[in-house]
Specification:
single chain; 107 residues; mainly alpha; Arc Repressor Mutant
Length: 107
């Protein structure tokens, strides 16, 4: 059965359009790998099915919420001062090799 030139052109146009849409889609989306706890993954699958959405859509929506919340976050808590102590001073000048060997029990 022969395919007419018009039909061939229509099929070609559809392929070009689909290819363009796919390329455009790929430019704005990036694939990545995430390590997700099994329990969380199970809940993600259930929620995606309940909403009739993909797991990627649910994860992206969650990330957007967390990132938006981070933009409005309160200032970071001031860190406590680190402990310090007196070491009793240096036993030897570290730039003096002979003195270092003598303290370390060398020659």
């Amino acid at each position: 059965m022969a395919v007419s030139a018009v039909t061939e052109r229509h099929i070609f146009d559809e392929i070009v359009i689909l290819t363009y849409i796919h390329m455009r889609h790929m430019v704005f989306h990036m694939k990545t790998t995430l390590n997700i706890d099994d329990t969380v993954m199970h809940r993600l699958r259930e929620e995606a099915a309940r909403r009739g959405a993909t797991m990627s859509e649910i994860v992206e929506a969650g990330l957007r919420l967390v990132l938006a919340e981070g933009a409005e976050a309160k200032p970071a808590k001031k860190l406590p001062k680190l402990p310090s102590w007196s070491s009793g001073g240096a036993m030897v000048d570290v730039s003096n090799r002979d003195a270092l060997y003598a303290v370390m029990g060398g020659e």
